[in-house]
Amino acid sequence: MEVNGVAFKEPNSGGAGSAQGLADTFDTFLALLTTQLKNQDPLDPTDSSEFTNQLVQFAGVEQSIATNDKLDELLQFQTGSQLTNAVSYIGKTVEIVSDKLLLKDGTSKITYGLDGNANKTTITILDEDGNAVRTVDGNTSTGRHEFVWDGKDNAGNTVADGVYNFTVIATGADDKTVNTVTAAVGVVTGIEAVDGTVTLNIGELGATLDKIFAVRETST
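Request: output the structure for the sequence above.
Response:
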């Protein structure tokens, strides 16, 4: 839309910059409107519907900016609250739903659950390139099980500490796959918030709060 040949551009909503841009544009709009009303022909007044529409647009954009600012404040408050609550996890041993594990000081523990009895369960630990480092047979009964890796590969050599991938594949009758849930176990060493998401640091391994399903005191 135009008022006396000056184009009105609707500013982007959100943030202090948008609010300032809206204020500047609105001041210019009011100045033009006032000038035109003062100089209009009283026998042929300007149609006020266009001015009304633009005022409605200004009000709508202003409301959107205010809403976005409130949502940003709410998100910051929520993130701060989650950070405060997450501090209590530091130093605790947690189980997190994951297909990665952290080998530290030559040892690592994982857990896995089977929703039915299996004929064979195979645990495979892989490096970052997807190569099998260690393959062992796991428990085949229904329920939760633990496996502690001693940090050695299939040839008995000690591998470097770090983050590894792992899989647990269980098969039952007729080679049908038995559903499994895998988890890594480790001690929380810190917390951080990135883009409003709170993450627990377990050494080099990270996990969001929704991945935690068990928290325990760390044994000395």
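The first helix runs from residue 15 to 39.
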